[in-house]
Amino acid sequence: ELDPELTDDLTASLRRATKMLLRKAPTGVTLAPDGSDEFVAKDGDPMVTLRGPIGELVLYLYGRQAQARVQLDGPPDAVADFERTDLGL
Fold this sequence. Notes:
It is built from three helices and four strands. It starts with a helix and ends in a 6-residue tail after the last helix. The chain has a four-stranded mixed β-sheet. It has helices at residues 4-21, 54-61, 76-83; strands at 28-33, 39-42, 47-52, 71-73. The chain is an alpha+beta fold.
């Protein structure tokens, strides 16, 4: 469990960094952090939704997909394409 202040800080930081982190994504991406409003991180069609605790979303988007506990929702082909994307810095 993360402190609510840290959760807010991570959410704000992630909102600012998504353009860079998702630049290679072949799909649109909506982020749905637990306990917060979901938001479109990258416009596109088809759209994939990444759900989970904010700390896990940060891990995933910074290239730690194998370690992150998140759920991907969307059309199966779009999810598969997104999972093959090299994310991170």
